[in-house]
Amino acid sequence: MRAFPPLVVMIAAIAAGATMDATIKYLSQTNPVLLVALARYAFAAVISFGVWLHAGKPRITAAMWRGHSLRGVIIAVSAVAFFWSLTVLPLAEAVTISFIYPLVAPFVARAMLGERVRASAIVAAIVGFMGVLVAVLGAPSASAGSQHALGLLAVFFSALTFAVSMVMMRARALTDGPIIVGLMASFVPGVIVAAPAIALSPPPRLGDWPVFVFLGGIAALFMYLISNAYARAEAQQLAPIHYTELLWASLYGFALFHETPRLQLVLGATLIIAACLYAAYHERKLAAKAAARPA
Predict the structure, then answer these.
(1) Across the 295 residues of the chain, what is the mean pLDDT of every consecutive 10-residue run?
(2) DSSP H helical segments within the chain, as ranges?
(3) What's residue 236's pLDDT?
(4) What is residue 190's predicted lDDT score, i.e. its pLDDT?
(5) What's this model's pTM, rounded to 2 decimal places?
(6) Which member of 33, 99, 173, 252 has the greatest number of CB atoms within 10 A?
(7) Does residue 68 contact residue 172 with C-beta atoms inside 8 Å?
(8) How far apart are CA 175 and CA 37, in angstroms?
(9) CA–CA distances in Å: residue 260 to residues 69, 137, 146, 187, 267
């Protein structure tokens, strides 16, 4: 994975994450959200455990357990909120609202990691947020059920807690490495949601088992890729790349759930992509300057 730049790894991670979200929405149509959350983390934990074994069983210390336990609680709460929002909102709409994460991530990173918030990160966030606003213009309120407002609140809450968990992941990834981070990010939330999921949910349909296994695999790939990217680059450098998920969500929404993208969504995506390209270009210039500077 070191052969690829962090931005490329991050783009691949977002593609995997969008695939995971579409799979979650599909499964949540016929299965309880808690059961889908348990499957997402349980199968991913099994796959991540195999990766951990193959890597020579890197040591997991008590300090790692403490750090990942706190992050695991935040991940579980954030995930269940977002998974539930997918049951009442169109995929592209839920993903679009979740884009408040890149707006707050640099400032969370500043508070938690002491990273300097560069002007380019602020500009990219503003332009991206403008794209989000344009994308949600003209959303058909008539199709929204009584739970639509609750779905929006769930996405907002999920995005805020996700920002905290992702910055925490960068802090852990710098010391623990992506293999341990990927394993703990699946195992700990899985343990947290296991009891309520088993107690409150009926068994999944037999025909859904292959999809549940696929969900675990794509979730494990997502966590490995994203933790690898965050271990090698600052949070504010990677945050704007999350906007590319809108393209994937629109594609999956159209292909799987018959959700036709609106013109406003396309225009908003254009602004979002422009913000991503600007952030990536600026970071490349800074990296080139740093490499050319005498030691």
Answers:
(1) 79 92 92 91 88 90 87 92 90 81 76 78 82 70 64 86 83 78 89 91 86 88 83 73 82 88 78 76 71 64
(2) 6-28, 33-54, 62-86, 91-97, 100-113, 119-136, 148-176, 178-200, 209-232, 235-238, 245-257, 263-292
(3) 66
(4) 92
(5) 0.76
(6) 99
(7) yes
(8) 27
(9) 40, 15, 22, 36, 14
Q: What is the DSSP string of 98-165?
A: TTHHHHHHHHHHHHHH-----HHHHHHHHHHHHHHHHHHTT--GGG--TTHHHHHHHHHHHHHHHHHH
Whole-number Å distance between alpha carbons of 15 and 243: 11
What's the pLDDT score for residue 140? 54
Question: Rounded CA gap, 272 and 127, in Å?
Answer: 7
φ and ψ of 114, to 5 deg: 75, 15
Residue 204 phi, psi (nearest 5): -70, 155
b vs e for 134-156, b when ≥16 Cβ sit within 10 Å of the residue's Cβ? bbbeebeeeebeeebeebbebbe
